[in-house]
Amino acid sequence: MYENVILERKDRVAVLTVNRPDKLNALNLATRNDIVAALDELRADESIRCVIITGSGEKAFIAGADIAEFAGRTAHQQRATMQAMKVFTAMEEFPKPVIAAINGFCLGGGCELALACDIRLASSTARLGQPEINLAIIPGGGGTQRLTRLVGEGKSMELILTGRQVKADEALAIGLVNEVVDAGKLMDRAMELAASIAEKSPIALQAAKEAVKTAARTNLREGLDREIDLFALCFASEDKEEGVTAFLEKRKPEFKGR
Ligand code: COA
Known about the structure:
Layout: E1 5-10, E2 13-18, H1 29-44, E3 50-55, E4 60-62, H2 75-81, H3 87-93, E5 98-102, E6 105-107, H4 109-116, E7 119-123, E8 127-129, H5 143-151, H6 153-162, E9 166-167, H7 168-173, E10 179-181, H8 186-198, H9 202-217, H10 220-234, H11 238-248
Parallel strand pairs: 2-3, 3-5, 4-6, 5-7, 6-8, 7-10
Antiparallel strand pairs: 1-2, 8-9
The structure holds coenzyme A.
């Protein structure tokens, strides 16, 4: 269905694989459009509760924006293409949890896409970074903002000013990834994690995701107000009755997304 991504469904989990291995899965315009279209499809698919995004091949998650598309482009032209950069916002605003399974180079726009996901798992062979400075440009897919929020200004500044690649263990130490997994076991671990999330109520998952994301978008008072709204909204769901009743009856809940 898509030229540059492969979309697979396993029970309640979708796996979205960026598939340009010859170019280390670099994000050209067509690939960004495919990811956005696949997210649209998955948003509407009620059977899917959690999404994993990964890269095809052994070497890369995504090695960045497609640098070939930058050649000769003027400031005006680049500004005009920013609408096409909505893949990062589309990822962040996707209502279901997304896990980035980082299986190798995760650079530039690849790192920015991973930053827009909710949980990042890295293979022990992964390399992450924002090397745009080496091309005399800066991150333009949210890197200066999301990396800074995640790892703090000092570390973010260092990585963006030097363009240095960090290994998986360092990425874990600075909070850039949640977990490092032995190479070869990454997708099994990602599926295990996704399956454990997919068991939860999709209504509560969406509320939880929005509430946590609100923390970076607003001040504490407004964030706490939003949390209360979303918390109360969960009480309007059948899933909340099922969750509470199942606990009291000492059985496993069966959430229906209502
Ligand atoms: N855009 C376009 N093509 C890219 C790319 C990118 N971001 N990253 C890799 N490729 C292409 C290479 O041009 C090469 O294509 P070719 O075989 O047609 O020449 C192919 O992918 C394999 O990459 P190669 O550089 O040969 O692999 P390597 O193992 O020697 O190096 C990297 C791997 C990731 C270190 C190196 O490819 C690199 O630095 N990529 C750019 C990373 C970057 O700056 N990203 C941010 C962009 S804003």
